[in-house]
């Protein structure tokens, strides 16, 4: 399969500012799912309230949610690379973002009908898993657009603006959730939790609307990529043969691109575990109240946004690898401190320090891959990025569970995250930074049609 016809000169021209803003606003909109639905609000409602009367209680409901998201992760791992590859070749990168964004919003909207009754648990689990798949597919093509709205000199700043927009979107949404629906006994529009969980269900509608509205500028203003010649495209199943051939070629041209996919999979699993278990540990280990966890989430998004913006500036000056290494070192050191300190005050201080390093690690990982990706194959590369991340997504949770069980202490589970971050850091240390010559060489290599 041939790459899409990308004009090399266009890669060096700055994109219009409104395209950068439009691209970044999608990240802010996606916080409707990532922050509100998946992390802080609806997942807690689904396991602690809807699943409370399940045999085994909320613990069993949490396990079922984990299995549902694991099944979604498997589907993403199998389909994301080919989905991104076909969007690149067919000139359907933006169309892919539109379709999967609307699918995500539809799934989130469906959560409104998940009432506070155990009989609705399975509906919630299916919709959460489906939304996770759709959101990840949208993110693959969205991230592939990064080089369309940036230049080699600005890619770090543009990526960091996108991540920071996502954090700001999360801040605004969490504030709305807290002030408008969760803190008062009677929320906006007269909704209450006692009315079959209506206050949380309305939040799902608001999150879906937020996603759609903030995605409209990208739909309108960011251009589509050119399609590859029709005769050089292949069918869906044949795309897997092309994918394997391209991976072999990528390894031959620059094996460190493949090494980066493996290294980033490790430390990104650690980053994901921080978000997955952070709120749980805040309450059970450090004594933070449930309402204060939401306030901490707002503060965490603020410092993560600042960290992402600062990291983006350094990314453009020194490259993404040093930024990621410093961020991982900071996270490992801070996690070790959290392993031994106690009390809400210590959690607030070192928890926010930890979040400061999360933003730069995330945004520079995206620019690292964008710099590595051959022109015209960004969607395919970010599909592989999603797949490799899912391939080891069991590691951090497994280690957290192992240490918790061995030492009979939830605090000991923090050591599991430290180990995964350390492994990712060690693997990344040996990876060479991006080389434009490798990307160009691969882009110029004829590909197979299966």
From TrEMBL:
Residue ranges of the TM segments: 20-44, 64-84, 96-114, 120-140, 161-183, 203-222, 270-288, 294-311, 323-341, 347-369, 381-406, 412-431
UniProt cross-references to Pfam families, sorted A to Z: ATG22
Record keywords: Membrane, Transmembrane, Transmembrane helix, Transport
Molecular function as annotated in GO: transmembrane transporter activity
A GO-annotated cellular component: plasma membrane
Subcellular location, record wording: Cell membrane
Domain Major facilitator superfamily (MFS) profile as annotated: residue spans: 20-436
InterPro entries named among the record's database cross-references: Atg22-like, ATG22/LtaA_families, MFS_dom, MFS_trans_sf
Nucleotide-binding recorded as keyword: no
Main location: membrane
Membrane topology, from the record: Multi-pass membrane protein
Record's protein name: MFS transporter
Organism: Nakamurella flavida
């Amino acid at each position: 399969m041939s790459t899409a016809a990308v004009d090399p000169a266009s890669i060096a021209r700055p994109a219009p500012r409104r395209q950068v803003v439009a691209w970044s606003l999608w990240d802010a909109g996606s916080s409707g799912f990532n922050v509100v639905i998946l992390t802080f609000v609806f997942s807690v409602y689904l396991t602690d309230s809807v699943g409370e009367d399940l045999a085994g209680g909320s613990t069993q409901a949490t396990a079922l949610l984990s299995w549902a998201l694991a099944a979604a992760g498997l589907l993403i791992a199998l389909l994301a690379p080919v989905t991104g590859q076909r969007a690149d070749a067919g000139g359907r990168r933006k169309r892919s973002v539109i379709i999967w964004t609307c699918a995500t919003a539809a799934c989130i909207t469906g959560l409104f009908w998940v009432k506070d009754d155990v009989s609705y648990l399975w509906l919630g689990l299916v919709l959460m898993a489906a939304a996770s798949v759709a959101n990840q597919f949208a993110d693959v093509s969205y991230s592939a657009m990064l080089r369309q709205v940036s230049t080699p000199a600005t890619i770090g700043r543009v990526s960091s603006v996108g991540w920071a927009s996502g954090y700001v979107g999360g801040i605004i949404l969490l504030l709305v959730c807290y002030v408008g629906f969760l803190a008062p006994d009677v929320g906006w529009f007269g909704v209450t939790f006692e009315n079959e969980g209506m206050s949380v269900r309305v939040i799902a509608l608001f999150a879906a609307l937020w996603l759609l509205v903030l995605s409209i500028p990208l739909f309108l203003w960011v251009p589509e990529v050119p399609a590859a010649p029709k005769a050089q495209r292949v069918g869906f199943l044949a795309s897997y043969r092309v994918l394997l051939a391209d991976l072999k070629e990528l390894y031959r041209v620059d094996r460190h691109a493949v090494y980066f996919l493996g290294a980033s999979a490790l430390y990104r699993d650690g980053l994901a575990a921080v978000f997955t278990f952070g709120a749980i540990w805040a309450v059970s280990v450090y004594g933070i109240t449930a309402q204060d966890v939401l306030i901490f989430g707002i503060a965490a998004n603020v410092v993560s946004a600042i960290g992402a913006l600062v990291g983006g500036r350094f990314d453009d000056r020194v490259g993404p690898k040093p930024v990621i290494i410093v961020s991982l070192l900071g996270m490992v050191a801070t996690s070790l401190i959290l392993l031994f300190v106690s009390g809400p005050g210590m959690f607030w201080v070192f928890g926010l320090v930890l979040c400061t390093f999360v933003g730069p690690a995330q945004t520079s990982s995206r620019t690292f891959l964008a710099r590595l990706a051959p022109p015209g194959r960004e969607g395919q590369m970010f599909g592989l990025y999603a797949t490799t991340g899912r391939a080891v997504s069991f590691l951090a949770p497994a280690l957290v569970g192992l240490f918790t069980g061995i030492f009979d202490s939830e605090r000991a589970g923090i050591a599991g995250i430290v180990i995964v971050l350390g492994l990712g850091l060690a693997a990344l240390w040996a990876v060479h930074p991006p080389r434009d010559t490798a990307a160009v060489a691969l882009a110029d290599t004829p590909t197979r049609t299966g």
